[in-house]
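Need residues for this backbone.
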């Protein structure tokens, strides 16, 4: 189930890149994804577990912070990054989040962290040097790299807030309200009445090796919301009933690998040999970072 979720999330990156080529902005695409997922999850919970939708005043501020600082910013910065970088590279940088979380746990929260965190940090830095090919000027878009690093920071915040949130609320309703408040935030930042609705009905080239084919933007957006968000989320959450969260998180690192393969097969995004080696080194560092923190009591359960 986790591998299935990671695969769908990875495919969604390429689908999003195709939608962005239609001229819609990363902000607008984020708004569509958040709103669509929020409405879908609200409908599912209202039909299956309406009691989980009850809101307590004491948790309102936390859920707003989770939805805006975690969910919304991760989505926007990721879309911004993949519009300017190869998808695999953007995801690899974003997945440095577990390393950030482990360092935060050690030096800010003073939790036990295994010594392997230093090896993870070293591998991640070496891998980034190889992926970015810093010996070649102008290899990667600077704004794209900055957005991917921002996405890693936002993803780390998402992880830390989610760990706290699931103590009082089930994962499905927590994520649902994350999407809800993220969608409300973007509705204020860029009101829906200014939405470029004409783009939704247009056909856009599928790019790369499928450039001779087109698809309506509304269909690609529907895929992004349903198969790229709601379904993989359900698979991942469902998997937690069978395997512990730390193991599921490590298996989820399959996403950047699939993203690189899909982007190569579909879009023709090639990585140099050094970048492929760097990708492997970063993934090794990510796995080490994910296992560096001592498990909490909730994770052990």
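Answer:
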């Amino acid at each position: 189930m986790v591998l299935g979720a990671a695969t769908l999330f990875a495919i969604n990156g390429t689908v999003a890149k195709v939608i962005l080529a239609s001229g819609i902005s990363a902000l607008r695409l984020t708004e569509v994804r958040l709103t669509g997922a929020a409405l879908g999850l609200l409908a599912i919970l209202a039909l299956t577990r309406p009691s989980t939708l009850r809101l307590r005043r004491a948790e309102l501020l936390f859920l707003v912070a989770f939805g805006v600082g975690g969910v919304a910013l991760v989505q926007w910065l990721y879309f911004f990054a993949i519009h300017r970088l190869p998808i695999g590279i953007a995801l690899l940088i974003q997945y440095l989040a577990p390393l950030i979380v482990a360092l935060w746990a050690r030096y800010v929260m003073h939790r036990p962290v295994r010594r392997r965190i230093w090896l993870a940090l070293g591998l991640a830095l070496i891998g980034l040097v190889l992926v970015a090919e810093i010996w070649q000027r102008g290899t990667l878009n600077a704004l794209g790299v900055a957005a991917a690093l921002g996405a890693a920071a936002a993803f780390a915040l998402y992880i830390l807030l989610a760990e706290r949130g699931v103590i009082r609320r089930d994962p499905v309703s927590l994520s649902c309200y994350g999407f809800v408040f993220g969608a409300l935030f973007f509705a204020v930042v860029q009101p829906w009445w200014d939405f470029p609705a004409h783009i939704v009905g247009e056909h856009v080239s599928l790019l790369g090796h499928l450039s001779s084919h087109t698809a309506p933007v509304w269909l690609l957006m529907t895929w992004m919301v349903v198969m790229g968000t709601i379904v993989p989320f359900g698979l991942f959450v469902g998997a937690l009933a069978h395997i512990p969260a730390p193991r599921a998180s490590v298996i989820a690192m399959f996403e950047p690998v699939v993203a690189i393969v899909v982007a190569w097969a579909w879009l023709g995004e090639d990585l140099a040999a050094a970048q492929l080696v760097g990708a492997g080194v970063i993934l090794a560092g990510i796995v080490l970072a994910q296992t560096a923190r001592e498990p909490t009591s909730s994770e052990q359960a």
